[in-house]
Specification:
Elements (H helix, E strand, L loop, with lengths): L17 H15 L5 H8 L6 H6 L9 H8 L4 H15 L3 H17 L5 H10 L3 H9 L7 H7 L6 H13 L3 E3 L5 E3 L9 H24 L16 H24 L26
Length: 286
Amino acid sequence: MDNSQNKIKPDLFEYSNYRKYLRDLYSYYKSETNYFSYRYFSSRAGFKSPNFLKLVIDGRRNLTEKSIPKVSKALRMSKAEEEFFTPLVFFNQSSSMKEKSRFAQLLARTRISNKTYSLSQLQLKYYSNWYYVPIREMLSNPSFNQELTSIQEQFQGEVSVKQIQQAIDDLISLNLIQKYENGRYGSNHEHVATPDELISSVVLNYHFEMIDRAAESIVEYAPEKREVSTTCISCSEETVVKIKERIKEFRRDILALSDQDVKSDKIYQFNVQFFPVAGVKKRTNK
């Protein structure tokens, strides 16, 4: 989103990066009033540094709980905008993926309450709720009983009928499933688009959720109902690339087996983890 080249006031609810929003908003006010400047903003907001806003926009300084209200007031934000701006700041500045996911969901709820319920928000719900994916699989399989109570039984009480119905409604809105004239549901064989920065943090949280469930399955299901194994190996960077390609091929083979199974009556989660435990530097911007 970039409104820096025109005189349309930037819409905060369309942004997933508060620094880009501040940059565009500054450009807007600068084009509308001759006296608006970084120094004027600092004076209005009560900051000693005359270029405080520029430092924030350039990523050289962060906003805090104390400075956020000053910025909001100086930029004449409405109450709704301030309620969205605050978690957006913490979402962008957080170094923890779990914290990012929490703020992402808060941002989604705020957007929805301000009637900007876009496809990306549906995507966020799809990734935020672990049971959406298996429900889609059930509805895509003609062998499954699609009654709400029957679907609930498959989850053994972990998901309510109300949650299942909401999931179905959202999956239809995402064009991931469709309802036929006979009342049954089926897959549209479409995929959710590549997520933006806001959604990406929730996708990571979805991976955390599925990995946790894999750990729980070790004690919750008999060994003959699951397969869990680990192997620690040493390898070069060249071999790492080859292994990753093999894993991708294996995943495609598993999907092909599932597609060819005409008697499928169960939902399984297929996880593959391949990660370094020594000899590789961890990233700093987590």
